[in-house]
Design goal:
The complex is a heterodimer. Chain A is about 35% helix and about 20% strand. Chain A is of the alpha/beta class. Chain A has two domains: about 1-185, 3-Layer(aba) Sandwich (Rossmann fold); about 195-325, Rossmann fold (3-Layer(aba) Sandwich). In chain A, α9 (about 270-280) links the parallel β13 (about 255-265) and β14 (about 290-295). The radius of gyration of chain A is 19 Å and the shape is globular. Chain B has a single domain (about 20-305), classed as Rossmann fold (3-Layer(aba) Sandwich). Helix content of chain B is about 45%, strand content about 10%. Chain B contains twelve helices and seven strands. The longest helix of chain B has 26 residues, at about 20-45. Chain B is globular. The N and C termini of chain B lie far apart (about 60 Å). Classes of the chains: A alpha/beta, B alpha/beta.
């Protein structure tokens, strides 16, 4: 066993992927000499050279399009977009080009690219540096969307995302970068689309991804003190998401709370709830409840931001609703 | 002479010999006859969707592609039939795609605006103005990174000069010395409005700002385009990106069905004097190639098109399930 930070796990996944496959390149603003805006690519330029760790101008739209063209021409580009808020600038390349190339060209080629980007609040970064926009990408056929919650899954899912022949949006939570965890010496590659059950429980199922997983684990711990056993499912992948795992848990607990940091309206949770209300209808003993951000921009002021981000208390309150 | 009139280069001598010019003429004919046929079939309701014909612009496709190798890649536009045919897409797969058949190059999922053939380095027509610029830029980056001798070519119209992507791509191509050729097909129109009413600058001035050499050519003179492209691809292959601006003519509407009521009939009538086929055949005649040879080529080309169209017509439409299951790479292939 070894202790590793989330950010270091990303760094090692990038390094191992580049060692394993000479067609993997990194590109993005400050990924090279500076080692990445958050340090995810630290040391990689020295290790693999500037041709494979490409510092770029601030040209998100063309970089994403270039990643598509490079992927169609034999490379496996990993493009870092500094904040998920800036993915507004890459939408044509991701939605009209990357997502559709395989399909609209009749399966002639695929676009093995990864767009890495951090989302989420908690750093006082304000309305344009804190958003969770994963639902936009999850809504586009042809894209895959991944959002790991801890160092081991960050490593395993990033390796899988880079190996995947289709475009993957790989979302990291900024507030998790410093998180440490004990992991095996040799971290395994993890399959995309598979959830992990992080805590077993009989009374209620909590489904989350990314940093919200920890909000759920904290809530589950508190609930356990009063004898309520919550099962916590870390989705890991948002598109495709592990419907079977959620349904299996719901079939055990008969109660479901879905938690994420993105705004609640039209979010990832809405899709999960809608599916479970359909395929899991007979299993439900209570209304399904969502815990997510209110329909407003992410505020800057510390107190406002703390009130905005879903808390363990709100999850506990939601669980009580399902048990009422 | 209007600003879209014949360039001073028209009628100039080129080093293109009769054999090469005849090969170029063959490509011009293939594009012209194919698009004329698509135009009538569209009017008859046999070609679904939107099609944008490049009649009047064929010399750009024929001339540039003659300078490329099969390993070179191109990214095309919504007006991409000429690029596709000149790059060597098989006629059967091309027409079957435009007729939305299962045997199409894209299995009937892309149609005119997305026709592609990776096996010949044709990275796709594109429904988004300017999008091909960044795709070609990425392809050039791949060629360079993987140590290939290949280059990437982005075709774009003058309408795309107003897109921000052009600035980003010119900057990165120059900054990184990418093997990329920018080919602007300047037909004077961006959809329904003259580009003189859309642009405050000339491409050659923009090129100077990026330190990328700009070459202007009469885009309707296939010999001139071929010669210019041939001169530039060596530079591009050596990592010196280039811009080739071809002054050309959009004879048809923005899309088929566009009656072009916004165009001056006099301007449209004047385009016949700049017909790429007429310019090429005059050159061939001057080089001693007789009308009978050209007529035989025309007959042969028309027959090949009709045969491919007939096979496309006989082909089945695509089944929904195979399309539905092809959004992602199948697990066993990944």
């Amino acid at each position: 066993m070894a202790e590793i930070r989330y950010l270091k796990a990303i760094n090692e996944a990038l390094s191992d992927a580049m060692s394993a496959d000479p067609t993997v390149i990194l590109m993005g603003e400050d990924v090279g000499e500076a080692g990445g805006p958050f340090g995810a690519s630290r040391g990689l330029r020295d290790k693999f050279g500037p041709a494979r760790v490409l510092d770029t101008p601030i040209s998100e739209a063309a970089l994403a399009g270039a990643a598509v063209g490079a992927a169609l021409s034999g490379l496996k580009p990993v493009l870092e977009i500094m904040f998920m808020d800036f993915t507004t600038l890459v939408m044509d390349a991701m939605v009209n080009q990357a997502a559709k190339a395989r399909f609209m060209f009749g399966g002639q080629g695929s676009v093995p690219m990864v767009l890495r980007t951090p989302h989420g609040g908690g750093l006082g970064a304000g309305p344009q540096h804190s958003q969770c926009l994963e639902a936009w990408f999850a809504h586009v056929p042809g894209l895959k969307v991944v959002c790991p919650s801890d160092p081991a899954s960050a490593y395993g899912l990033l390796r899988a995302a880079i190996e995947d022949p289709d475009p993957v949006v790989f979302i990291e939570h900024k507030a998790l970068y410093a998180m440490k965890a004990e992991v095996p010496e040799a971290l395994p590659v993890l399959p995309l689309g598979k959830a992990a059950t992080l805590r077993e429980g009989r009374d209620v199922t909590l489904v989350a991804y990314g940093a919200a997983v920890h909000t759920c684990l904290s809530a589950a711990k508190t609930l356990a003190e009063e004898g309520i056993e919550a099962e916590v499912i870390d989705l890991r992948s948002i598109q495709p998401w592990d419907e079977a795992a959620v349904l299996a848990s719901l079939s055990k607990t008969h109660r479901l709370v879905v938690v994420h940091e993105a705004v609640e309206a039209f979010g990832v949770g809405a899709e999960i709830v809608a599916r479970m209300a359909d395929v899991g209808f007979d299993e439900l003993d209570a209304p399904i409840v969502r815990v997510a951000a209110p329909f407003m921009p992410v505020p800057f002021s510390k107190g406002l931001e703390a009130a905005y981000i879903p808390s363990p208390e709100r999850v506990i309150a939601a669980v009580r609703r399902t048990l009422a | 002479m209007s600003e879209h009139g014949a360039s001073p280069l028209a009628g100039h001598n080129t080093s293109i010999g009769p054999e090469q010019l005849l090969a170029l003429y063959r490509t011009l004919l293939l594009i012209r006859r194919s698009e004329e046929r698509l135009g009538t079939m569209f009017a008859d309701g046999e070609v679904p969707g939107f099609i944008h014909l490049s009649i009047g612009q064929e010399a750009v496709s024929a001339g540039v592609m003659a300078a490329l190798t099969p390993e070179d890649t191109i990214a095309s536009t919504h007006r991409g039939h000429g690029h596709a045919l000149a790059k060597g897409l098989p006629l059967d797969g091309f027409f079957a795609e435009l007729l939305a058949r299962e045997t199409g190059l894209c299995k009937g999922r892309g149609g005119s605006m997305h026709v592609a053939d990776m096996s010949v380095g044709m990275l796709g027509a594109n429904g988004i103005v300017g999008a091909g610029l960044s795709i070609a830029m990425g392809s050039a980056l791949a060629h360079k990174t993987l140590g290939r001798d290949a280059i990437a070519v982005a075709f774009f119209g003058d309408g795309a000069l107003a897109e921000g992507l052009l600035h980003e791509c010119l900057n990165m191509a120059a900054l990184w010395h990418l093997p990329m050729l920018f080919v602007c097909e300047n037909n004077g129109w961006g959809e329904f409005l003259p580009t003189s009413k859309q642009l405050s600058f000339q491409l050659k001035d923009l090129a100077a700002a990026y330190g990328i050499p700009h070459t202007g050519v009469d885009g309707n003179d296939v010999a001139a385009v071929a010669q210019a492209a041939q001169a530039l691809v060596g530079e591009v292959r050596a990592g010196r990106p280039q811009i080739l601006e071809c002054q050309t003519t959009r004879v048809r509407g923005h899309f088929e069905g566009d009656a072009q009521k916004y165009r001056d009939p006099g301007e449209l009538a004047a385009l016949t004097a700049r017909d790429p086929l007429a310019i090429a055949s005059a050159r061939l005649e001057a080089l001693g190639v007789g009308a009978a040879t050209l007529e035989a080529l025309n007959t042969e080309t028309t027959a090949a098109i009709e045969a491919a169209l007939e096979r496309a017509r006989q082909a089945p439409f695509p089944p929904f399930e195979s399309a539905r299951s092809d959004v992602y790479t199948p697990a066993e292939a990944s």
